[in-house]
Design goal:
Layout: E1 2-6, E2 9-14, H1 16-33, E3 39-43, H2 47-59, H3 64-69, E4 70-74, E5 76-78, H4 88-97, H5 116-130, E6 139-142, H6 158-161, E7 168-173, E8 177-182, H7 184-188, E9 192-197, H8 203-211, E10 231-236
Parallel strand pairs: 2-10, 3-4, 3-6, 6-9, 9-10
Antiparallel strand pairs: 1-2, 5-8, 7-8
Helix pairs in contact: 2-4
The structure holds 6-phosphogluconic acid.
Length: about 240
């Protein structure tokens, strides 16, 4: 892997499998260094995490002790039932948490049965019980869309203008409906943020975020500059192909 420092965090460029392994290594190292009573690790949505879950389950990549003693959730969620293929937590549970027998009391989905604002409030309370004051998650995984969105911050998102200083929120997203998401304030309250960005389809967006002069509202992943000291980008050669 090659490493570069950017204004948006550390950038590691390598092969998919080494990036998958590095994601585990980073999270496990964070846990080993952590003094948290309840270590919290949030996954995310999209196709990359789903491939990572399958790899992690098949290869036993995550140590059993970590699986048994970590509280798992997702950093953003669509308002769909858990048994939907569109459910980010549902996918994590089906592909990794259930096959690896993570204790049910350590699985923390957003409560999508509530209307979105209530679901966000219920989730804030759950996370407040698990985490010390001022902490959103110990580890937060994110992806980036080819429109440069991350979490549920799509271009033009109100959350990028003002998130009310809460760590988690409901947001009505044009054409995509309601979503539940960590906020920019929440990202700043994470211990470690890992952004996995793979494939040629991400090359232009990655260039715009890391090296372009777009406004934050047009390239939302630029929000990661506000917490760059905690951010590690895991990027393959195809996604990095337009970087200078
Ligand atoms: O629910 C989602 O889909 C995530 O919030 C979203 O931010 C995702 O991480 C990116 O779109 C990357 O997705 P891919 O892994 O499919 O590229």
């Amino acid at each position: 892997m090659t490493e570069k420092q950017t204004d948006y965090g550390r950038l590691l460029i390598g092969e998919k499998m080494e990036l998958f392994a590095e994601a585990v290594r980073l999270a496990v190292a964070q846990k080993e260094a952590s003094e948290s009573t309840n270590f919290t690790w949030a996954f995310t949505g999209g196709s990359t995490p789903q491939a990572w879950y399958q790899w992690a389950a098949e290869t036993d990549a995550i140590p059993a002790e970590v699986l048994a003693s970590t509280h798992f959730t997702v950093s953003d969620e669509r308002c769909v039932p858990l048994n939907s293929d569109e459910s980010n937590f549902g996918n994590a549970e089906r592909k990794l948490l259930a096959p690896k027998s993570v204790p049910v009391e350590h699985r923390h989905p957003w409560v999508v049965a509530y209307e979105p604002e209530k679901a966000a409030e219920a989730y804030r309370r759950t996370m407040q019980l698990l985490n010390p004051p001022g902490k959103a998650y110990d580890v937060c995984f994110l992806g980036m869309g080819d429109d440069a969105h991350t979490a549920s911050f799509f271009p033009g998102s109100e959350l990028l203008k003002s998130d009310g200083s809460v760590f988690f929120a409901a947001v009505d997203t044009p054409q995509k409906g309601w979503r539940l998401t960590i906020t920019p304030t929440g990202l700043q309250a994470c211990g470690l943020i890992v952004v996995m960005t793979l494939g040629a389809g991400k090359a232009e967006a990655l260039k715009r975020v890391l090296e372009g002069d777009d406004a934050l509202l047009d390239a939302p992943s630029k929000i990661l500059k506000t917490c760059a000291d905690k951010v590690v980008w895991l990027v393959d050669e195809a996604a990095a192909s337009q970087l200078s």
